[in-house]
Amino acid sequence: MIYYETHISDLIFEFFQKNRKSLLDFTKVNTVIKEVSGINDFFTAQGQAAELLEKIKGHNSIVSEPDRREYGDFQTNQFLAQKVVDYIFSKSNDFEFVLEPTCGRGNFLLATIKKLKNLKKVVGVEIYQPYVWETKFKILEYFISANENTKPEIDIIHANAFEFTYENLAKSTQDLKTLIIGNPPWVTNSELGSIDSKNLPQKSNFKKHSGFDAITGKGNFDIGEYISLIMLRCFDKHNAAFAFLIKNSVVKNLIYDQRQNKFRIGQTENLKINSKKEFNVSVNACLFLTNLNCEPEFTCTALDFYTKDKITTFGWYKDKFVYSVQDYDESSIVDGKSTFIWRSGVKHDCSKVMEIEQVNGHFKNALGEEINLENNLTYGLLKSSDLKEDKTNSFRKLTIITQKKIGQETKYIKDKYPLTYKYLTSHKEYFDKRKSSIYKDKPIFSIFGIGAYSFAPYKVAISGLYKSTHFTLVSPSDSKPLMLDDTCYFIGFDNLKMAEIAHYLVNSELVQKFLKSVIFSDSKRSINKDTLMRIDFEKAFDSTAFELAKRKIKDLKIEHWELFEEMIKEEVTEQMTLF
């Protein structure tokens, strides 16, 4: 039988059949249910009880599924809920009060009720009404079949988690040992806003950003993080455990902000789960487990949820936010400021026109057109996917480089390279369609990420898209420097031996350990300029023996080594000047 889009089991059906007369007065049937299960206010209005009575008389309906995005809805299956509860209770099992602020179908609540015999109070809050009923029916069914003598006070409340007054609940339960458990929505406020969801908190600067950050992009936050922060703030004085299934990025944010928030949390764990297996979604997620009312801690231990093998300890260490405390401790000597300025590659936002291939002696663009161009403005182009080898001087595509520095006038192309100018002009509409404001009021056919550094013949480059921290040495092709696109980062050199030494240093065990200690591989852009600018070449050089480098770099001489040392001890060189 279906009631409020919720399937009612045979056992529940029989229970209400037996008590069908009580359904004529919802307060009477509520009293019966309270005695059986401990659930308060099972029905909140006579109309609900009356509708169930009609269903019992034989009416059926079809279950409709909600839009999962509307609620960020990835419901925890019973097996996973039980595994989570088992792990929590392996550490502590004397909880008296259980709260789930987004209880969904009730699997977490039911798992805790089954485990805890001395439980005094249970509260579940849920915005989607069919889940409220499903949770109530599940708990009622358990108590009917289990025939437990003692029942906790149970409230399953149909409400928006963002508007519920947790402060009052926290005050009334402060003396109870508490478990806050759940699986809050795995979406951001902007994602919900894009589908006009009503399941949103009121707009507020809840992370207490200041100035510009409070107004712009920093205002986009994860709903799970929002609810987590509410729980940590409201129940900070409780003798409590906090256990949420949330995205790894949320845990990272919580630990990062811990230096500012100083929540009284400790013994914090991030147990990574296979979300594809558990929820059939490709999201990096975990069980975040911590104790409240402790001396504030600023690190978190990451483990595998299934094996409990330790992965790393991340968080604040030596006044830095790091992915691996151990690796950082062993490599922090090279955490400083790079002598060389790391650059991102060329940006044009017009690949159909600006990126070409050479086929049978002809140029061909992404539109499939064969085109005639002068060779002067065409350069080999490397993308992130091309930086897999240790060294390279080959390329798959070429790009047209219209400027030597940002903002340079491009009228010269018409006189010096008429074929190129004719081609670019014939596709002017593609340039006009570029949406980025960086092209506004700039010369026609403008590009970005261009400067004298772009034309350095030798480059040490790394992908900004992939998780690998491997660096590639890029050399010229036919005496012409290769360009990199804007998904890559690089430093440039005029001298091959200087480039080879820099390449050797960034791929050294010490620098690689440092990068892996500070890079969170599941971040959207795990490798970025800020991180690369922390590589202290002087410290890396001082930690490396010439004899070891000589074994790796062909024909390396001591004068090369000394020349590089002179270069990195200069504060700024002409090559490094920012355009």
Verbal overview:
- This protein is of the alpha/beta class and 579 residues long.
- It folds into three domains: 2-56, no CATH class; 74-297, 3-Layer(aba) Sandwich (Rossmann fold), CATH 3.40.50.150; 343-576, no CATH class.
- The strands form four sheets. A ten-stranded mixed sheet has the order 5-4-3-6-7-9-8-10-11-12, sandwiched between helices.
- A hairpin with a 2-residue loop joins strand 1 (2-3) and strand 2 (6-7).
- Helix 5 crosses helix 6 (107-115), helix 6 packs parallel to helix 7 and helix 15 packs antiparallel against helix 21.
- It is elongated.
- The termini are far apart.
- The model is unreliable at 59-71, 189-197, 209-218 and 571-579 (pLDDT under 50).
Q: How large is the share of residues in beta strands?
A: 15-25%
Total strands: 23
Query: What class would the helix/strand composition place it in?
Result: alpha/beta
Report the mean per-residue pLDDT as an integer: 89
The radius of gyration computed from the alpha-carbon positions, rounded to a whole number of angstroms, is 31 Å
**Helix share of residues?**
25-40%
Point out poorly predicted stretches.
59-71, 189-197, 209-218, 571-579
Number of domains: 3
- Strands in their spatial order, largest beta sheet: 5-4-3-6-7-9-8-10-11-12
How far from one another are the termini?
A: 71 Å
The general outline is elongated
What composes the largest sheet?
A: 10 strands, mixed
Counted by DSSP, the helix tally is 25
